[in-house]
Amino acid sequence: MTSKTDRREFLRSGLLTAATMVGATTGLLAPRSTMAQKTPDVVVSHGTDPAKMTRSAVEALGGMKQFVKPGQKVVIKPNMSFASGPERGANTHPAVVREVAAMCAEAGASRISVVDYVLNDPSACMSLSKIPEFCQDVPNTMVNHVKARRLFQEVPVKNGKELKSLEVLKEVLESDVLIAVPVGKSHSSAGISLSMKGMMGLIHNRVSFHSRYDLHTAIVDMASVLKPNLVVIDGTRILSSGGPSGPGKVIPLNLVIASTDMVAADAQMVALGTWYDRKFTPSQVRHIRGAAERGLGRMDLDNLLIVDVKS
Amino acid sequence: MRFQRVAQGISFGIFAALLVLAAYPFAEGVQVDFFLRMDPVLGVATLIAAKVFLFFLIPALVVLSITVVAGRLFCGFVCPMGTTIDLMDSCLRPNRKATARESSYEATSRFRGWKYLLLISILVAAVAGTSLVHLGSPLSLVTRFFGLVVHPILLLVADQGIHWSAPLATVYPDLQYIQFPRKVFATNAFVALIFVAIGLLVYVHPRFWCRNLCPAGALMGFLARKPLFRRTVSESCTCCGQCSRACPMGAISENPLHTVFSECIMCERCREVCPVGAVGFWTAPSLEGANIEPDPTRRGLLFSAASGLLAAGLFRTSIHQPSVGSADTVLVAGDLIRPPGALPEPEFLSRCVRCGECMKACATNTLQPIWLKAGLEGIFSPVLVTRLAGCAITCNVCGKVCPTGAIRDLPLIEKQHAKVGTAWINRSNCLVWEQDRKCLVCDEVCLYNAVSFKPVPGLKNAAPFVEENRCTGCGWCESKCPVQGESAIKVNILGEVRLATGSYVEKAKEYGFVFKSRDNSGDKLAPETFDPLRKSGAQPPSLGPEDEAGVVLPPGFLPNKQ
Fold first, then answer.
1. Percent of chain B surpassing pLDDT 70
2. Which residue among A122, A142, A188 sits closest to B534, beta carbon to beta carbon?
3. How high is the ipTM of this complex?
4. Predicted TM-score of the model (pTM)
């Protein structure tokens, strides 16, 4: 799955760059309206109902059928590592996760696996996050936590600056589609934890990220291997400080962000949120800047097609 | 299926279920230690050694009263040790062939007195204030074996089974996600060795342990010399000897009319095999057994009493152990960190029966049996191995499962104030102090904000300091210290508080401790709240770069310069 997207990403970003250059030289790019019929780079969906916001955000990208074909296996990666409820903001809102799973089921996915590495007591994480409870009636959907090493498999990291290999959850390697559904939150070491940092929930050798490697570079290395096909960021409320576990300042933003570009989605969330009582630009977050510089996605929000929708 | 086997099966099932339930989160109201409390020698010897009446050992006294009425019923129907030995017997010696004469009481009486001697040693040592219960209590032995040896192996086997079932993943993809925790124990080989030795004695006689060694059996046998309900043989007996051959306890005399009641476990095997139906179990005052009870010699009695006293004397004069209430100078290992709520050391050791329930139940596996760290007397007693894991802030299960109150059953808030020691920084091992590298892990994992980082002259990075009055000794810092080998921060028993009675909260106030979880919702936290990424309060000044206004940025951010 990972190498497949590499090529697609490459072609896509290559075409985008070419188009941008052509557009820029011919003066076509200046007004946004000329690209209105194109698929947006980032969708920001505003509203109060988490499920409706999630659905309209994905529909603005062309709907889940763009990403999930009938019979495909999907892995959804929310945040559910902490034994706390949705109000604390350490885990993704269960209604957002449920809606993503439901859309995958409607698109005909044969298996939808909602999975995260848990840091607290597994049963407490599962029950308090309410994610299994919300997803129980979605067809073909199972919610699981992971910890046992046998569930992971080592894969090489080509061009990794810090990492030479990663132990990735086997199910991710065997699946067709990966969807990141993080909650917007602060992080005591990484600054911000969104879709890219959240991919650490799908790998096993996590401790060495903190002790052996430069964390920010390691996150970028990981993102070069684990690239979600779709990112849906839960901004219904963000954990603005005290992350990743909380307790901290929880700010309602009443929005959901969707994009196929993990860097752009994360960058948009950074720009829209308030973190540690102040505003940051995406390029101030070390791992977002690193990912953009390595060409894994774009953080130049000014040059992206960002569409706001209401639900 | 014979009734005895059914009863044994049910009883063992309950025993196993209660052992499984001795875990976090604790099922309130379930008396997981009930089987231990039924053990007569555990009960009586602990009452004597602790010099206090422990009402929760009443089940043991009930078992003893039943013994007076109905003999050693407990051994034959309830005791999980007896069931395990029976099982080993039928596995190892399925076709035991012995003549009636070889199976008779007289022919097998050679070692019978040993259990009385062991019992007397234990009781005399208990009078002298030393508990030897763990050497002989069958329930202590069997609980320790199943909790510390069998249970971890079963978890391993179950996890391996899931691993091997990987080909089924196409049919049941979620099977692979069943994950069993891993449990590890120190000294587990010794625990296993002792138990296996007991089990292998079935090669000598069936239920060799129960006949010859079990001090609980001795105590019950003493009271079962003439029980109200007992084996009776009618005149129709043909002296064929079938009963002698079938008796698992060798409790039938060469003359099958005679029964040694102190050895009879009321299994009624003899009644079932009797071809003429001469055997009954009732109160009828029929043909009595002659006086062939085991009668230890005076020499033997004196010898066992003396050995009990000698053991107590040895322990009392060992370098490690003070006697109860004394102010003797003793050597205590710095890492002998007892579980929170453990009684003061002498009282603790006089009550702890080494059953291993606390270690089986421990949420984080930090509670471990020791070998000789606290001297011979402390063998198999529990300590926190804080390099392995810390003590979970929201767990107080060890006190809840302890059958004798050696670890007090404390409410959560009390347990959180039971200081077990203090963390100390070993500067020569510390990445910051020794190598001036940036490391904050001990501060980040400390749930009580007891580690603070301060600027130190000569170092670029802020260095860690422990505030003793905030540290409970829970040990998360030690377990998460990234220094390989010996940790740079270690919990030492310094400052431990061990109260036999009274409130730890009050004591903490008196001593000026400030045990404040930095997370106000602490009570809701799961026990494994040890994410090394957790953020602590104020960050040290050397952390991040400064922005254009000179304000230090949080970790992970860069100044806004393009």
1. 90
2. A188
3. 0.77
4. 0.82
